[in-house]
Amino acid sequence: MNVASAPSATNADVQALRDVPGLYARLQGELAKRVIGQEIVIRDLFVALLAQGHCLMVGVPGLAKTLLVKSLAEASDLTFRRIQFTPDLMPSDITGSEILEELEDRRRSFRFTSGPVFTQLLLADEINRAPAKTQSALLEAMEERRVTTAGVTRDLPKPFFVLATQNPIEQEGTYPLPEAQLDRFMFSLRLGYPSAAAEAQILQATTGAPPAALEKVCTAEKLLELQQVVRRIHVPASAAEFAVRFAQATRPDGGSAPAVVKRCVQWGAGPRATQALALAAKVTAALDGRFNCSAADIAASAKVVLRHRLVLNYRAEADRIDADRLVEELLQAVKP
Description:
This protein has helices at residues 11-31, 39-50, 65-76, 92-95, 132-135, 139-144, 179-182, 196-206, 220-231, 237-248, 259-264, 271-287, 295-300, 302-306, 314-318, 323-333; strands at 55-58, 80-84, 96-102, 108-114, 121-125, 146-149, 152-155, 161-166, 187-190, 265-267, 311-312. With 336 residues, the protein is an alpha/beta fold. The chain has 2 domains: 10-224, 3-Layer(aba) Sandwich (Rossmann fold), CATH 3.40.50; 233-336, Helicase, Ruva Protein, domain 3 (Orthogonal Bundle), CATH 1.10.8.80. The strands form 4 sheets. A 5-stranded parallel sheet has the order 2-5-8-1-9.
C-alpha cells in the first residue's frame, strides 16, 4: 500500500490509516452474510461512519434497509435503537422526558428518562411519517450530538449516527422533511431493486435456516480513533478549490452557474455540501491508502452529497431532469 503522508501526519496516523481498507473489507464481508446486492450502499455507509455523517436511505419496502442498519450496528459493536416514526409520535418520545416520582420519604422529585436517541446508532424508520415538530426533535442531536430537555443539555454517546429511511412511493400521511433537516444528512442513499441473481440469493438466504450471528469486526473506540485520523487527511488546495467551485455551480444566482442550473434549479447547495464533499473525499482516500485526497475523490461522492440538497423547479420536472442527472451534467461542466 502506498501511503502518502501530509505534513501533520504522525506515524500513529499512518499506521491507523493502513487499517481502514482491511476494516472495510471485514465489515463488508460480515454484512454480505445478511444483505445481498447492496455493495455500493454499504460502502457509502462506511464512508459516512468515518466522516461522522448521517445518512438518509430512500427505497421501496423490502430492500433490507432496516436489516442493513441493524446488521451494521451488530458488526460494529455499537449500541442500537430504532424509532418507528408515526403521525402521533411526539418529540419527547425521541429525546426523553421528566417524570414525577415519589421517593421513600414521601417527597416528590422529577427524574429524567432518556429516550431512544441516547444510543450510538439510531434508526429513524420512515422518518417522513411524523410531522415536522417531531422530525425537528432530531435537529440538535444530529448537528451537535447533544439533546436539551427541560433546560438541561445532555451529551449523546460517542460515536453517534442517525440513519433514517424513507419510502418514496407512498405520499398519503407523510410529511416531507424540511430543507434544514435534509441539509443535516451528509448522504442521501438510494436503494434499488436487486438483480435477478441477487434476488435468487435473497430467496434462498431468507427462507432457510435463521441467519447466524455476525462477528464483531470493530469497536466504538476504534471508530472514534479512525474518525480523528480521517480529519487529519490533507485536502490539497486544488481539491478544495474544486469542491468550492462545484458547490457554487449549483447556485442559480451565482456567476459560475451553468445554463442547466439557471434553468432548472430553484435553490442550490449550501456550505454544508462543500464540507461533506471534502470529508467524503478524505475517507475515499483512506480506503485507497492515501493521506491526501484529490479532485477525483471529491467528484466520487457528488451524487450522494448533492441529490437531497438541490431544490429543482417546475422546468426540471417538465424536462424530466432529476438531481442525479443534474449532478452528472455539472461534473461534465465543472472540471478540476
